[in-house]
């Protein structure tokens, strides 16, 4: 039995510092500290059960993927809301990536049939067919029924990595929606579905920080008229100075799309710099066939006598393919596909080095 196995594996897997301190009281061999550090870093049990101190968040790349309205549609759910008097407990969120135009549809049950009906009848027939739909990896979106709709309409599907909701552009809008609903739910939480039209109008008529315009203005060329007297104010525009009128006409015309594109690029660059500065010490990219450890998302189950709090934090798996700039398709140790996961949920694996034979100081 090796010295390192005895002092680390059979001593409840202490960290490097504690392991080397124990070894120094009894053993010595050349490069002992190097061997110990490599052994502990490569320990399979430690990789599965101990949190990582190294950030594995991939750097953020270019985010703007669209140049015109209704080119890319993003879908997401806000789930498990209080059951309304009309029986609704979920909210389907649909958002155009370019203009940020948002549609909110309460639903009673998350199923492909209901989602397909909403997407086709309320979005595609009204706004046209997008080039791409972004969603999560839920079976509602990856199942045959939804995929058949995509194929019929010639739409590409970009599913997010599993358990990586922040990759969905709708995520930020969801926070706004939840904040509004929290306000509207007081004091009666069962009436939230009756306030959805107000939430939807607020989102679509409010200036978005990324575009510099409200979604309504991007689509229609002017702000939404709330009161009839605003039409009279519009007719009086001729009384405004020439430079103000010219700027207004430029925005109303086709140039508004170019302005939005520039604003989106500036916003993306700003967020990318802040994010990459925070996660500049990113672990190396992974290669196909490499052994890695994936964050364990298994939930507690009384029926299975399993408590997630005491389960492994990571589980061993293998890189099958790279998907996009920072996502990977994985398989378990038996070769079964696990799906696509973000690099931020992975940590590198490597073979355990062969330890040197130590010399017992007490015997010398």
Q: What would you note in describing this structure?
A:
It is a single chain. With about 375 residues, the protein is of the alpha+beta class. Among the domains are: about 5-40 and about 350-364, no CATH class; about 70-275, Nucleotidyltransferase, domain 5. Helix content is about 35%, strand content about 15%. It has 13 helices and 12 strands. The strands form 3 sheets. Strands 4-3-2-5-6 form a 5-stranded mixed sheet, sandwiched between helices. A 5-stranded antiparallel sheet has the order 10-9-8-7-11. A two-stranded antiparallel ribbon has the order 1-12. α8 (about 170-185) packs across α9.
How would you describe this structure in keywords?
single chain; 364 residues; Nucleotidyltransferase, domain 5; 5-stranded mixed sheet; 5-stranded antiparallel sheet; 13 helices; 12 strands; elongated
Topology:
Blueprint: H1 3-7, H2 16-24, E1 27-28, H3 32-41, H4 44-49, E2 72-78, E3 90-96, E4 102-107, H5 112-127, E5 132-135, H6 139-142, H7 144-153, E6 156-159, H8 170-184, H9 196-204, H10 215-220, H11 229-235, H12 242-252, H13 255-278, E7 291-295, E8 314-323, E9 327-331, E10 337-342, E11 346-348, E12 359-360
Parallel strand pairs: 2-5, 5-6
Antiparallel strand pairs: 1-12, 2-3, 3-4, 7-8, 7-11, 8-9, 9-10
Helix pairs in contact: 8-9
What amount of the residues lies in strands? Answer: 15-25%
Q: How would you name the CATH homologous superfamily of the domain at 72-273?
A: Ribonuclease H-like superfamily/Ribonuclease H
Say how many strands there are: 12
Number of helices: 13
Major beta-sheet overview: 5 strands, mixed
Q: What gross morphology would you assign? A: elongated
Query: pLDDT average, as an integer?
Result: 82
CATH class of the domain at 72-273: Alpha Beta
Radius of gyration, rounded? 27 Å
- Derived structural class: alpha+beta
What CATH architecture label of the domain at 72-273 applies? 2-Layer Sandwich
Q: How widely separated are the two ends?
A: 19 Å
Enumerate the spans where pLDDT stays under 50 for 5 or more consecutive residues. 351-357
- Along the chain, the helix and strand elements come as HHEHHEEEHEHHEHHHHHHEEEEEE
Looking at the structure, the CATH topology of the domain at 72-273 is Nucleotidyltransferase, domain 5
Helix proportion: 25-40%
The order of strands across the largest sheet is: 4-3-2-5-6
């Amino acid at each position: 039995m090796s010295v390192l196995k005895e002092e680390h594996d059979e001593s409840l897997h202490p960290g490097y510092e504690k392991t080397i301190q124990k070894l120094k009281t009894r053993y010595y061999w050349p490069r002992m500290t190097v061997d110990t550090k490599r052994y502990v870093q490569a320990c399979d049990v430690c990789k599965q059960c101990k949190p990582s101190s190294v950030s594995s968040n991939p750097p953020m790349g270019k985010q703007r993927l669209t140049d015109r309205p209704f080119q890319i549609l993003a879908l997401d759910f806000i789930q498990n809301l209080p059951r309304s008097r009309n029986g609704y407990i979920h909210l389907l969120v649909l958002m155009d990536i370019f203009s940020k135009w948002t549609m909110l549809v309460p639903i009673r049950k998350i199923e492909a049939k209901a989602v397909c009906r909403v997407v086709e009848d309320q979005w595609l027939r009204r706004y046209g067919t997008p080039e791409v739909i972004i969603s999560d990896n839920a079976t509602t979106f990856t199942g045959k029924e939804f995929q058949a709709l995509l194929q019929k309409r010639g739409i590409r599907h970009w599913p997010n990595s599993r358990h990586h909701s922040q990759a969905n552009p709708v995520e930020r809008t969801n926070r706004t929606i939840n904040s509004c609903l929290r306000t509207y739910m007081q004091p009666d939480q069962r009436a939230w579905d009756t306030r959805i039209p107000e939430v939807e109008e607020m989102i679509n008529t409010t200036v978005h920080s990324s575009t510099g315009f409200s979604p309504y203005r991007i689509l229609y060329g002017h702000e939404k008229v709330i009161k009839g007297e605003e039409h009279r104010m519009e007719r009086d525009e001729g009384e405004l100075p020439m430079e103000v009128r010219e700027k207004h006409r430029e925005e109303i015309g086709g140039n508004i799309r170019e302005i939005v594109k520039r604003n989106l690029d500036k916003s993306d660059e700003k967020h990318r710099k802040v994010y990459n500065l925070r996660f500049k010490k990113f672990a190396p990219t992974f290669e196909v066939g490499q052994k890695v450890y994936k964050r364990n998302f298994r939930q507690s189950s009384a029926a299975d006598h399993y408590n997630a709090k005491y389960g492994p934090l990571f589980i061993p798996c293998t890189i099958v393919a790279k998907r996009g700039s920072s996502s990977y398709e994985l398989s378990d140790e038996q070769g079964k596909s696990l799906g696509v996961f973000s690099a931020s949920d992975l940590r590198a694996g490597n073979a355990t080095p062969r330890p040197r034979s130590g010399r017992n100081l007490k015997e010398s």
